[in-house]
Amino acid sequence: MKTKVISLDNKDVGEIELSDAVFGLAARTDLLHRMVNWQLAKRQSGNHKTKGISEISGTTKKPFAQKGGGRARQGSMRSPQFRGGATIFGPVVRSHAFDMPKKVRKLALKVALSAKAASGKLIVLDQATAAAPKTKDLATRLKALGWNSVLVIDGAKVDDNFALASRNIPHVDVLPEIGANVYDILRRDTLVLTKDAVAALEARLK
């Protein structure tokens, strides 16, 4: 499919052919759901923890005699029924990550790109560069373009001035091509790819 290429000044600077193998796939919400779950599970720290009975500070002495007291038998004050005692079957430090086949991850990224293209929210930019790392200047340009929630994906390396200028603008993310992922694509309303990003993504995903 053909789409126009614009500059940051919102001027047409030509056209580009987008590969249907990468940008023309049918929508698969089930696949996108699986991929987002996989990404969010991987980033969970999993450092929640409660103490088992072997980790509780306290005496190992039997609190009172087994018989004759008229109370239920007890072997330790560190038991879970007592205040300050152990937690039974509580969470432990662990990884929440699970496996996802590489082919499925690749397909999910292509479906996410295709979904943005199909909804008209995919824009191809000539180049994402800034003359100086000035947030105000870039914010003015993005506002003129109507990009309130946008993910900009550049080629192998992001322009330093552009990255610095965009860093303090709310709802604006900038990534190199290698960092393109389903979650970040879906969480922003508009997806902006530079010509370098299009070439690199097609080379990687075809």
TrEMBL record:
Keywords: Ribonucleoprotein, Ribosomal protein, RNA-binding, rRNA-binding. It holds the Pfam family Ribosomal_L4. Residues 47-80 are annotated as: Disordered. Transmembrane segments: none annotated. GO terms for molecular function: rRNA binding; structural constituent of ribosome. Coiled coil: none annotated. The keyword Cell inner membrane does not apply. InterPro entries: Ribosomal_uL4 (IPR002136), Ribosomal_uL4-like (IPR013005), Ribosomal_uL4_dom_sf (IPR023574). The keyword Ribonucleoprotein applies. SUPFAM superfamilies: Ribosomal protein L4. It comes from the Bacteria. GO terms for biological process: translation. GO terms for cellular component: ribonucleoprotein complex; ribosome. Part of the 50S ribosomal subunit. One of the primary rRNA binding proteins, this protein initially binds near the 5'-end of the 23S rRNA. It is important during the early stages of 50S assembly. It makes multiple contacts with different domains of the 23S rRNA in the assembled 50S subunit and ribosome. Belongs to the universal ribosomal protein uL4 family. This is Large ribosomal subunit protein uL4. The lineage of its organism: Bacteria, Pseudomonadati, Pseudomonadota, Alphaproteobacteria, Rhodospirillales. The gene is rplD.
